[in-house]
Structure formats: C-alpha cells, structure tokens
Design brief:
Protein name: EF-hand domain-containing protein
Subcellular location: Cytoplasm
GO cellular component, one term: cytoplasm
Pfam families: EF-hand_7
CATH class: Mainly Alpha
Number of domains: 1
Number of helices: 10
GO molecular function: calcium ion binding; calcium-dependent protein binding
Number of strands: 2
CATH architecture: Orthogonal Bundle
Length: about 260
C-alpha cells in the first residue's frame, strides 16, 4: 500500500497544534488562539499534527445562531439524591442531570444522543456519539460520568466553533469546497476526488434508496469525518517508519491496521 506525499501534500504538512477539548448539545466554551487559522502555509508545514482530533478552532464568529448544534437548553432536572460535585459548573450540571433520565449518574450513548442535535435539528449520528463517548470514557464503562461529560462538552464546543469557521455560507452544513478548505487548514492537502468520496460517505441524506444526497455534511458527520482522517493517517504513519509517505505491508498487517481502526 502506498501514498505519495509529493502528489497530495500528505501528512508532512501539518495543522495547528491541538488541545483535548469538547462539544455537544448544550454548550461549553473553549479558549483557542484567535489567529490560529491565519497562519501562512509555510508556518503550517513546520508544525506537527497535534493531538487527537481537529485543532482548536478560532474565536466564534459573530452573528451565528447560538442555538445551532444543541437546540434550546433542556428542561430543569428532576430532584435527585445528590447535588453537583464540588466546583462543578451549575449550568453544565443541570444539563447533565436533565439528560441522565434514569438518574444513574452515568450517560449512555442513547441518553447523550437525545441531547445532541445538528443545525438542521436532525439528531446526531449514533456512530458519532459512540465515538465521542469512547474518547472520554476513561474508565471503560461504556458510559460517561459528569467529569467525563464536562470534558466531552468542551470538546464539542471547540468543534462547533471550528465547524462555524469553515461553514463559510452559514448554511449549517459543509459542502465539498468548505471540506477541502478545512482539511487543508488541518494540514491534509488531499485531492478533489478524495474530498468528493469523503463527502459522499458522510452525507447523511445520501444513504439508502439510491438517493444522491445533498452533497454536504452536517456537524456531527463533519466531526466524524475529520477524526477518521486523523486516525487513519496516524495508523498509516505507524507503518511509515522512514516518513517518506510510502509503506509496504503484508495481508495480516493490513488486517491489523483496519481492526485497530475499528476498535
């Protein structure tokens, strides 16, 4: 299996450095340098990929509907046996308690999905929700407690700002040109053909019944697409020991790469 970095730029280009931060339906802010996306191409090439996920986005654009990607705040939580942990954000705790419908102190995939909506009010893709819980489920329970939820929420908020930055027309979705701009900003100079394939894969309205879709991706699938590109690139790099953008692997190594990606 080979990949030519000289043709498409490859992973020798690099996005701004990242931080582990979060995102969701209620909202949490994340501090990010205001000029991160104003760097020149040469400056971007001198940096590494950073951490897992996309780089922290710039400051939120003014005038963008604040209710997008979360909907209105959930109703006040029912009375439970315990209050918020010491030092907890009261608003974030109220959101967590309202989503925790069984009052277990843990959020399941289904509970979290019900709390998250896109800008067009469609529910989050369940696979994106699983991906997010998997990233922040530090004790491997398959659920997230309040502290894990707080980290996930900040991650979602940073992704929301990132999404709004690249949604140039304010449509609430990312088209092919906007996706290509986002990937190039992250350091992935990929071909038009690949970006079209990525859009087709993650266009939630293009699956089933042979429908062509809308040719764009909603917020939840934008996150999933970008994280997949990042993790696949990292998997490729683990085999590219001389960092020349080319690898040669046998059948079992290929299976191992795919299985680890699905884990």
């Amino acid at each position: 299996m080979a990949y030519n970095p000289n043709q498409y730029g490859g992973y020798q280009q690099s996005p701004p450095p990242t931080q582990q931060q979060s995102y969701g339906s209620p909202h949490v802010g994340g501090g990010a340098p205001q000029n991160q996306y104003n760097q020149s191409a040469s400056q971007q090439q001198q940096q590494g990929y950073g951490n897992y996920g996309a780089p922290p986005p710039p400051q939120q654009q003014q005038g963008y509907p604040p209710q997008n990607y979360g909907g209105p705040p959930p109703p006040p939580p029912k009375q439970q046996g315990q209050g918020p942990p010491p030092g907890a954000d009261p608003q974030l705790w109220s959101w967590f308690a309202a989503v925790d419908t069984d009052h277990s102190g843990q959020l399941t995939v289904d509970e979290l999905q019900r709390a998250l909506v896109n800008g067009d009010w469609s529910p989050f893709n369940i696979e994106t929700v699983r991906l997010m819980i998997g990233m922040f489920d530090t004790d491997n329970t398959g659920t997230i407690d309040f502290q894990e939820f707080a980290g996930l929420w900040k991650y979602i908020e940073d992704w929301k700002k990132c999404f709004q930055t690249f949604d140039a027309d304010g449509s609430g979705s990312i088209d092919r040109n906007e996706m290509q701009n986002a990937l190039r900003t992250f350091g992935y100079n990929l071909s038009d053909r690949f970006v079209s394939v990525l859009i087709q894969k993650f266009d939630k309205y293009g699956h089933g019944g042979g429908q062509p879709g809308k040719g764009d991706v909603t917020f939840d699938n934008f996150v999933q697409a970008c994280v997949n590109v990042k993790t696949l690139t990292d998997s490729f790099r683990s085999f590219d020991t001389d960092n020349d953008g080319w690898i040669q692997i046998n059948y079992e190594q290929f299976l191992e790469l795919v299985i680890q990606q699905k884990a």
